[in-house]
Amino acid sequence: MISGEKTGEDSDLHISWKCTVCGFVFSGQKPPKGCPNCHSPSGEFIRETGHVPFIYDGVPFDVLLINGSTHREGNTGVMTGIAEEMLREKGVSYRRFNLNEYRIDNCWCCYAVRAQSCDYPCRNPKDDMHVFHQMLAASKAVIIASPVNWNAMSARLKIFLDRTTCMQNLYHLNKPGLTESKVVGILVNGHEDGGVKTAMDIFLNFQQMGYILAPFGMAYRTHGAEFNSNADREFFRTDELTRTYTRGVVNNVVELMKLNVEEQLKGRIIPVSE
């Protein structure tokens, strides 16, 4: 509910809708058909409710599912939705998050100034990333979905991964790690080239935190430069290989996770992290 929302017939006229891509705010009964600022479709709008603290309730769960795209309802959202569907079918507990709905500041790069300053918890407690840190530590596996932007992951996801440095640096500070032997799966989509590179760039971040890539744990699908990007959404929504690959990665993450490798390898792993 919106704080101070009116009752009666005109209350709907005062609903605020925020574009999660560019931040444009619209007032009306429903979100606009498209954002006049960035031209994103109406699915990118969420109801503006003012500041609601983002907290983790401490309840353990299996899979942290991250949509790392700037567009929550775009092509990466299609893959994330298929992954979510598969997780429900497999009966595992999960939590899904679209990064563009949260405030994640740039990394302060404390490590570059003084290695001991890059510690867990992160020295920036004022944005939402510290909650994601808690969930990375609490979950058994992570599935990351990203678009291909200029042959690389999205800027939002890059910032998110930059902010995991405090968890990776625990090993350099000779402190107990929080992530080794957890499982990771990676989903990538794009208009044209860059799928393999993007997936590998994402994996290298998780590898440095001790995550294990599930067998056949990467899937990428591109539409092709010969097509207009306007046709991408319909392609990914109906493409059977996108669906098959995504479900395969999720299945493989879950099956490896069920082997409880995190517990089996506890105390037996030697961190080798740059």
Describe this structure in words.
α1 (75-90) links the parallel β4 (63-67) and β5. α1 (75-90) crosses α8. The protein has 274 residues and is of the alpha/beta class. The strands form two sheets. The protein has a five-stranded parallel sheet with strand order 5-4-6-7-8, sandwiched between helices. It has helices at 75-90, 110-113, 129-138, 155-162, 165-168, 195-207, 232-238, 240-258, 261-264, and strands spanning 16-19, 25-27, 45-47, 63-67, 94-98, 141-147, 183-190, 212-222. Helix content is 31%, strand content 17%. It starts with 15 loop residues before the first strand and ends in a 10-residue tail after the last helix. The chain has nine helices and eight strands. The chain folds into two domains: 11-47, Rubrerythrin, domain 2 (Single Sheet); 63-262, Flavodoxin domain (Rossmann fold, 3-Layer(aba) Sandwich), CATH 3.40.50.
Estimated radius of gyration = 20 Å
Number of beta strands: 8
Please provide the ordered H/E string of secondary-structure elements.
Answer: EEEEHEHHEHHEHEHHH
The amount of beta strand, in percent, is 15-25%
Helix-residue proportion: 25-40%
Unreliable stretches (pLDDT < 50, length at least 5) are 1-10
Shape: globular
> For this structure, what is the CATH homologous superfamily of the largest domain?
Flavodoxin domain
The average pLDDT is 88
Helices and strands: which structural class? Answer: alpha/beta
Number of domains: 2
Number of helices: 9
End-to-end distance: 46 Å
Q: In CATH's first tier, which class of the largest domain applies?
A: Alpha Beta
Order of strands, main sheet, comes to 5-4-6-7-8
